[in-house]
């Protein structure tokens, strides 16, 4: 399913994209010229792999914010409950291997270099290793599908920092695939999971009014959310609503998933759903996106709901936020509310997801016109080159960033 392509926007007067391939450097929203990339950079968040790693890892995550170790320990217990090991690195090893397998199946000779923001292997190592092997035209895939500072712009800032810090700026270019929140390969595993959960509830004799689907994603500061996506004055700006492009993208994908489920599961039409948030970490005085998943679950029995499907819509794999915030805390909240509950799967290494990621790389290798790119919401296909001031960090301001027009 494809909605009409978003209009092209003209680059700003000084809209040269730093650190970019020549095809992306002009600032056009969609790069419709083939680019001869020679390697893929898989960029992720990273996570500790033992108890001794936990506090150093959390120091990396919160660097520059002056948070003392005793406060970090309040979060560390999530990791300590799993032996100090975050699942994310193992998941990325599996994803890297799956991408390599799909590339080989298609006959694409592109090595995959994997690097993290906050733990080994670091992005600096990945980029320098690629350059040492003669690979200098990189196309990046970040393991985050939506538009916000932490899920898009911060990765672009990471790329710029790495190129500057390693002295490779000018010798290595890094472009980035478009945000893939509404690419069919990312969305289909969620459709499958919700369909199976809802079909199970219906088979148990529950009516639509007794079933609720909660689509959960990571909360972010409201001020940051409002600055996600193209800003006013850009041709690609929309009236996103209070949660900016970040919330609007999630809402659009959730609506698509529910429409697909209603069309494929007899008795599923009319099931209610809601976008909810989890994992907030800021001070109580700072507004973050709401409502919280656990608060919503607690109120469901009062609405006559007997069963709930929790969908980790904001996550590509079973990160610690999924294992702790959903599989532990949200499951406990559902049990206390007396609800039947299913937590649906993340894309992980689902073949549709892996194939979709390679499709995104091929779009850029081939210069696929925007009108021919698959997407399932009215917001797609999202752009290749981020727009000026997109996804500003309210606290830190703008830093140099790859794959986008400054600032």
SSE arrangement:
Elements: E1 39-44, H1 54-61, H2 69-80, H3 88-106, E2 112-116, H4 123-132, E3 137-142, H5 149-165, E4 173-176, H6 184-203, E5 211-218, H7 222-226, H8 244-264, E6 272-278, H9 293-299, E7 307-311, H10 320-336, E8 340-343, H11 351-366
Parallel strand pairs: 1-2, 1-3, 3-4, 5-6, 5-7, 7-8
How would you describe this structure to a colleague?
With 407 residues, the protein is of the alpha/beta class. It has a domain at 184-343: Rossmann fold (3-Layer(aba) Sandwich). The chain is 37% helix and 11% strand. The protein has eleven helices and eight strands. The strands form two sheets. It has a four-stranded parallel sheet with strand order 2-1-3-4, with helices on both faces. A four-stranded parallel sheet has the order 6-5-7-8, with helices on both faces. Strand 3, helix 5 (149-165) and strand 4 form a beta-alpha-beta unit. It is globular. The two termini are 34 Å apart.
Low-confidence stretches: 1-15
Strand order of the largest sheet: 2-1-3-4
What general form does the structure show? globular
Number of strands: 8
List keywords for this structure.
about 400 residues; alpha/beta; Rossmann fold; 4-stranded parallel β-sheet; 8 strands; about 10% strand; disordered N terminus
Q: Concise description?
A:
The chain is α/β, with parallel strands linked by helices and 407 residues long. It has eleven helices and eight strands. The protein has a domain of 160 residues: Rossmann fold (3-Layer(aba) Sandwich), CATH 3.40.50.
């Amino acid at each position: 399913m494809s909605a009409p392509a978003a209009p092209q926007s003209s680059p700003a007067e000084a809209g040269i994209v730093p650190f970019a391939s020549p095809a992306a450097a002009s600032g056009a929203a969609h790069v419709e010229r083939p680019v001869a990339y020679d390697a893929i950079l898989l960029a992720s968040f990273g996570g500790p792999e033992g108890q001794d790693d936990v506090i150093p890892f959390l120091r990396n995550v919160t660097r520059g914010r002056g948070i003392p170790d005793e406060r970090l320990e309040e979060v560390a217990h999530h990791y300590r409950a799993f032996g100090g090991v975050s699942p994310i690195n193992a998941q990325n090893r599996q994803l890297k291997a799956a991408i390599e397998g799909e590339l080989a199946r298609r006959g694409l000779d592109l090595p995959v270099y994997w690097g993290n923001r906050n733990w080994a292997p670091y992005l600096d190592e990945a980029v320098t290793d690629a350059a040492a092997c003669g690979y200098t035209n990189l196309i990046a895939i970040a393991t985050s599908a939506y538009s916000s500072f932490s899920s898009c712009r911060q990765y672009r800032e990471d790329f710029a920092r790495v190129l500057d810090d390693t002295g490779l700026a000018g010798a290595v270019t890094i472009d980035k695939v478009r945000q893939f929140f509404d690419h069919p390969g990312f969305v289909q595993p969620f459709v499958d999971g919700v369909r199976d959960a809802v079909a199970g509830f219906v088979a148990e004799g529950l009516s639509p009014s007794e079933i609720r689907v909660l689509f959960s994603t990571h909360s972010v500061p409201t001020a940051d959310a409002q600055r996600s996506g193209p800003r006013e004055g850009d041709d690609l700006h929309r009236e996103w609503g209070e949660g900016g492009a970040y919330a609007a993208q999630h809402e659009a994908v959730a609506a698509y998933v529910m429409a697909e489920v209603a069309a494929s599961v007899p008795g599923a039409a009319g099931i209610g759903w809601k976008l909810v948030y989890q994992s907030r970490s800021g001070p109580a005085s700072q507004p973050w996106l709401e409502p919280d998943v656990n608060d919503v679950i607690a109120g469901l029995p009062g609405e006559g709901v007997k069963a709930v499907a929790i969908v980790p819509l904001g996550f590509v794999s079973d990160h610690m936020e999924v294992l702790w915030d959903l599989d532990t805390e949200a499951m406990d909240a559902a049990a206390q509310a007396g609800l039947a509950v299913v937590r649906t799967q993340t894309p992980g290494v689902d073949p549709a997801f892996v194939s979709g990621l390679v499709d995104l790389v091929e779009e850029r290798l081939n210069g696929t016109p925007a009108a021919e790119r698959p997407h399932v919401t009215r917001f797609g296909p999202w752009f290749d080159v981020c727009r000026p001031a997109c996804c500003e960090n309210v606290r830190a301001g703008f830093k140099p960033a790859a794959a986008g027009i400054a600032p």
